[in-house]
TrEMBL record:
Gene Ontology biological process terms from the UniProt entry: regulation of translation; translation
Family: Belongs to the universal ribosomal protein uL1 family.
Protein name: Large ribosomal subunit protein uL1
Protein's organism: Pseudocalidococcus azoricus BACA0444
GO cellular component: large ribosomal subunit
Complex formation: Part of the 50S ribosomal subunit.
Pfam families, A to Z: Ribosomal_L1
Function (record text): Protein L1 is also a translational repressor protein, it controls the translation of the L11 operon by binding to its mRNA. Binds directly to 23S rRNA. The L1 stalk is quite mobile in the ribosome, and is involved in E site tRNA release.
Coiled coil: none
Length: 236
């Protein structure tokens, strides 16, 4: 079993084993973000779904109103004039077949890949490389589109793709631990509403099982689910 550092033990001692109100949980997350680098704020949400059934899968995007605090490197695979359009819209890398060849050779200098629908048959050739890294473009995630300027600007501004893993847990970053707690709450609320809006049709019984937040190197803090779902942001 991994040895727990003295730093983490001391931080864990600050966290009580109970659900916290959303704002209290986020203030505590900030207090426990003491690593020597800028930590992210993470949410780990257990849902009452079994993703091995197609009608219980969750894969979608959320636009975080306060942004992610991260620089997203966007690559675009397109054809002809669309390549220039992507570059002008702020893509970090843009190309056609030659970019697919580079990916095949191991070039992965990007965090997000957008492709135009006409290029998807060629992109499929590198599916084995992109798939395991969660980088395969998909219409559901908004990463297969002809509207490149809109897609690029949205993802650069704080739109994130997320999915439930095979155990039905969603792991997603929702900002930096250095953000004000109120900004983190706005982002977390947007995430909760997105998950509720995209509830899989096959989800039975209680949908939300638990939600924990944590800084990258900090302890997990349980959030009161109904407190978050009932929250109206005007009340923050």
């Amino acid at each position: 079993m991994a040895k727990v550092s003295k730093r983490l033990r001391e931080l864990q001692a600050k966290v009580e084993d109970r659900p916290y109100s959303p704002l209290d949980a986020l203030n505590l997350l900030k207090e426990t973000a003491t690593a020597k680098f800028p930590e992210s704020a993470e949410a780990h949400i257990r849902l009452g779904i079994d993703p091995k059934y197609t009608d219980q899968q969750l894969r979608t995007t959320v636009a975080l109103p306060k942004g992610t605090g991260q620089t997203v490197r966007v690559a675009v695979i397109a054809r002809g004039e669309k390549v220039n359009e992507a570059t002008q819209a702020g893509a970090d890398i843009a190309g056609s077949e030659e970019l697919i060849d580079e990916i095949q050779k191991g070039m992965m200098d990007f965090d997000l890949l957008i492709a135009t629908p006409d290029m998807m048959p060629q992109v499929a050739k590198v599916g084995r490389i992109l798939g395991p890294r969660g980088l395969m473009p998909s219409p559901k995630a908004g990463t297969v589109t002809f509207d490149l300027p809109q897609a690029i600007s949205e993802f650069k501004a704080g739109k994130l793709e997320f999915r439930a893993d095979r155990t039905g847990i969603v792991h997603v970053l929702f900002g930096k631990a250095s953000f004000p707690a109120e900004d983190l709450l706005v982002n977390l609320k947007a995430l909760q509403e997105t998950i509720d809006r995209n509830r899989p049709s096959g989800a039975k019984g209680r949908f939300w099982r638990s939600i924990y937040v944590a800084a990258t190197m900090g302890p997990s803090i349980q959030v009161d689910i109904s407190g978050l779902r009932d929250l109206k942001l005007g009340e923050v």
